[in-house]
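Q: What residues go here?
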């Protein structure tokens, strides 16, 4: 999946926009996807304290991991 597809899913599931960023770091408590040259980073920004969750080789991989994290956090079944 890509970020546009992920965004559509998050909108349908009514995930608050302030709790994530699909286009780089954002202030506040949020989960962020950051493109860094050819790598994709998944970062949890907790009011300025950045916790790197992992780096990925493709947009598909980082989006799938992002979705998996939210799926666990929100107890989604699909």
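A:
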């Amino acid at each position: 999946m890509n970020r546009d597809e992920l965004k559509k899913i998050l909108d349908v599931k009514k995930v608050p926009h302030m709790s994530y960023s699909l286009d780089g770091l954002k202030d506040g408590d949020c989960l962020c996807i950051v493109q860094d040259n050819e790598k994709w980073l998944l970062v949890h920004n907790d009011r300025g304290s950045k916790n790197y969750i992992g780096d990925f080789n493709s947009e598909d991989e980082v989006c799938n991991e992002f979705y998996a994290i939210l799926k666990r956090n929100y107890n989604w079944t699909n």
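A: Context that may help when evaluating the design: The chain has two helices and four strands. The two ends are 15 Å apart (CA to CA).
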